[in-house]
Amino acid sequence: MVNLKQAQAKRIGMAERAAALMELHFPQFPEAWLWRRGATKGFTTIPRTLPITMEAIDEQSKGQPAGHTLFCLWARTPDGPLVVIENPATFAAEAGFSGARAVDTWRRRMKFLRDNLFILPKKGPSGDFHYVLLLNPNAAVEWMRSHGKVQNELYGRFRDRVAEVGASGELDAIWEHWNAEAAAKAAAEAEAAAEVEVGEVAEVAEVPEVAEAEAPASIAIPPPPPNPDANPNPAT
Fold first, then answer.
1. In this structure, are residues 101 and 114 in contact, taking their beta carbons and an 8 Å threshold?
2. Contacts of residue 94, Cβ cutoff 8 Å, sequence gap at least 6
3. Residue 25, helix vs strand vs coil
4. Among positive and negative, which fits the CA dihedral 162, 168, 169, 172?
5. Domain-located, residue 142
6. pLDDT by residue for the chain (236 residues), tens digit each?
7. d(Cα 231, Cα 205) in Å, to the nearest integer?
8. Which domain holds residue 184?
9. What's the structural domain count of the chain?
10. Is the alpha carbon torsion for 20, 26, 30, 34 positive or negative?
11. Closest C-alpha to 73, from 150, 155, 131
């Protein structure tokens, strides 16, 4: 796994190589035509895996591709995970939707992103998607894969790119989180089952003439995390 120091050294090396190639192939090119992150206004930081992420999204939302909708959210983020959408029509237009039903079309794409864990929305003045928390797209693609929603060829390219940019640790971290959730859920279910069993025994002992015990109240359990066995590259 690439550590922080190694990743920083790699970025410096890449920047130096890019500068050398720039000078070789495009010497003295007019600066007015160049977009430089350190000097130009109006930029944000996005995951380098986002193009493949968008492809995975579009493969699963055929007929209603939502990849560009996700890109527009990342382009609006102020270098942080939270986007506030005060005017959905603006976001719908940037995502390429027009006409009387533009916002409705945009909302359908947003629901797909929500259902596949690319975003976590919260209701506000502008509707259901007023506050939008952008989730790690690498984790979301891994979740889709664990549910059979990403094809082998595309997933292979995704894993190659994740390794190339030094983000493999993010996938290990999300699997550790899912495994911890699964263990906690299993423990809660076992504890609840034990309590129910003890309660039924006590009730029978106290009221032997009752033939059938009352059904226990249902226990609210969150949706299960992905199956740990689906992890193609488990953390060691």
1. no
2. 72, 75, 76
3. helix
4. positive
5. yes
6. 455 566 556 656 777 888 899 899 999 889 889 888 888 888 889 999 999 999 999 999 988 999 999 999 999 998 889 999 999 999 999 999 999 999 999 999 999 999 999 999 999 999 999 999 999 999 999 999 999 999 999 999 999 999 999 999 999 999 999 999 899 989 999 988 888 777 666 565 554 454 443 333 333 333 444 554 455 554 43
7. 47
8. 46-201
9. 1
10. negative
11. 131
pTM of the model: 0.76
Residue 194 lies in a domain: yes
Beta pairing class for 127-134 and 119-124: antiparallel
Residue 223 domain flag: no
Instruction: Quote the CA–CA distance of 72 and 93 in Å, as a whole number.
Output: 10
Tokens at residue 118, please?
């690319």
What 3-state DSSP class applies to 121? Answer: strand
Is 192 contained in some domain?
Answer: yes
φ, ψ for residue 59, nearest 5 deg? -65, -35
